Amino acid sequence: MTDGTAGAADKAGDTGDTGVTGVAGAGPPADLPEAAVRRLESTAFSSGLSVPDFAACLDLGLQPVALVQGFCVMQWGWYGQGSGYMRGMSPYVGGPQVAGSYSETYRCPHGFVSNEHRSWGQNLEQPWVEDAWAQGYGSAYQRMLEEATAHGAHGVIGVVDRVSSIADTGTTEFHFLGTAVTVDDGPTPAGGVPWSTYLAGQRLTKSIEAGFMPVAVVAALASVRVWAYCMTEYLMEGSMSWGSPTGPHLVEQVSKAHMAVRQLARKHVRQQLAGDELHGATIDVVARELSQGDEVIDCTLRGNRVRRFKDFDPVELPRPTVRLV
Amino acid sequence: MTEQPEVPPEPVAHDLPKDAAHRLEELEHGLFTSDLSVNEFLLVKEAGFHPLGFVMGSSIYHIGIQTRKWGESQELTKLTEAMYTARELAMNRMEEEAEQLGADGVVGVRLDVNYYEWGNDSAEFIAFGTAVKAEDGTSYRNALGKPFTSDLSGQDFWTLMQTGHVPQALVMGTCVFHIAHRKLTQALGSMGQNVELPNFTQALYEARELAMTRMQDEAGRLNASGIVGVRLEEKSHQWGSHTIEFLALGTAVTKGSGEVTLPKPITIISLDN
Amino acid sequence: MSTSFSPGTTPPADIRAEMLLGARSLATPAPPSEKRGITSDLSVDEALLLHAAGWEPLDLVCGVAVVSVPVGVWNWGRGAISLASDAHDQAVDQAAAQLRGECSKVHGHGVVGVRVEVSVRTHHVDVELVGTAVRPISGKDARGNDAAQAMPFVSDLSARDFTLLQRAGWMPVGLAFGASFVYAPRRTAGTAMKQTRQNVELTNYTEAMYSARESAMEKMQRSALHAGGQGVVEVKVTEGPMSFARHAVGFTAWGTAVRLVAEAHQFVQPQVVLPLDDAVVTFEAESLRGSESKGRRR
To answer: How far apart are CA A116 and CA C295, in angstroms?
Structure first.
């Protein structure tokens, strides 16, 4: 324990009203493993910063105190796979959809054809998947912050987060790594919860110069399940059937699902911003085809939540440049 | 040893495909296209040129077969000729497109070779670039009265113009060389020893010299005062490891005004990469 | 993106004070805000440059379209596969329309830094466009128009290139796309036999591939003209056999269509920099610390 702010650790789990942490679904107060406690008690600092980043960090008046990390492994019980007869049904909720979530249905234009004919289809947001993801991500994040708080750190810079599936076990690992820092003569952040950012080095310096204080790393997952109806199935599989157009045709159901999943991810992230700005956002989309035009589309959006603490200073406009190398 | 053809093959006049003619007509109506970045676009403008259009030329060429002697290092003249002629064809068509746009030259030329699964022993040779025209109406055509060509980027083009030089043409020399396999007895004899293999050294030396000399001959025909940005590329293409193409490429330049107007550079050190 | 400094310039001493100021802003809980947070995929550098040029980011916007390719188009045939290029055109148009729709919804004047992903599959063409909607800070564009334009511009230029272009008097108008797909030509067995040992140009092959490439470019030009462009910068050309149909070759070309909005091209004196290190720098941006030199190397 390096200074008096360590007591703030008690409050670390309590993030609801601080307006500082950005991640929903706070995890339980973690009991750090013994190895972590031993490592954290060492007096020498460790940091994941490169030399230029380290130099820039000192320049800003930040002292690295420790390399901190947080983990969480989540198991997926039910992920939207399953047979077509279950379409629209979630094992976790009573009805076909949670209030306020996205859902769209498609009716077959053909009338009764056969029992196998997919006479209706649905695009459905999977809030149970999104919530589980937010819980895993949030817990790993909280654990990293707890390690940082245990060091009396004010913030965590150069955060690296990794979300990876552990092969074939139906589980996902959330892993955070960052360098905990203290601000020279700086105040303890509200609620004792350290701020965090993906940035380090000169990029962090520029952010500060520009008047953007990092608040938290923010991420959200949106998941949409596509239960294809006959037309979507024909178009995506290229099967010839009556009613399928002969020329190129917009696959409306799939296109809409793709738009929706991205809009949902932005909505989830915006809910965590509380009026702050998000910089350097990255958007990753993974679409997994299940069968016969059915798919699950997951969209992850992450970025740096920053708060404006002063107005922009003007910068010089760019000029075309020539490098003599 | 045969030289690569003394004079490049005359392009068959107007052998561009119909679609090319359509596209170029559109470009003549004022639209320009270019693969230059914004930075390069502004530098080309700064150098007093306006981009006219993205131009290209292509040739799918069947490369003949030449028997190689197992134990002898030799130039494979038939392959040399094929590699040279095919590139020259692609370049000529690109120049023709530039000509049709009334260009003074082509900057940022890239030469590519594509192989397709369905094209046995044949390859596609492509040349791309951005045709440019001087905005003050001065002609920058080269000694042969054709638009100049150069593989310089927008940045390099601007810098070259600031040094008082003008590009003439992209010049090249090529040489396809077969390097002898060693006889079993030779290989056994030198096993476990660290020795120079003089016949290998000599073969590689000769091949590179041939490619470079041919490139210089091309520049000589243009009365160029020098060649900048020479690159020497070595590739085995699809001939196996003992047959190598040596390709020398560079931009021939002539001295223009001779005035160097390059502003003093500002030195910088990057803090991250 | 990267940073550089010129030896001899020292950073101002007050950067620590700024850091402290920032840290203090987090010491008290933020008042509840009804503001709609801004999201953007711009870095700090890009946000600053945009601001310097009088523009501000509004929101991250997307456009996605999936268009089916009719059955059997990839089978053996002759000449251009127009159904596939029609599907491509329809997909990029639809995706761009979605992107513009999202941009208009947040009252943007255009979208910069658009990431373009086009994938052509056996049965469908997928197009994804993601970028940041922007608008002039004053709410007015260069011509003094108040409201968001009916037709917001779309551009894959970075914020730096956008400001650079604007400074020279140009504005992006839209993305121009063109694609063409063609069946590989065939030689008769007899011709192939005759040509085995010869050096000879395969003129029908050349013609087919050359035409297809020109046709992709021409479509791109037409779409640029249609968008009201006077030129297309940063044209990207992709080409190659389709992974699922090796006898078919696809060509695509796209770039940002631009238009001169000033009276004439504004000349901007280039900056010449001499890096003292070997690091390959891909992007340079302005810092607030005075007038360090910036460069961009490809």
So the answer is: 62
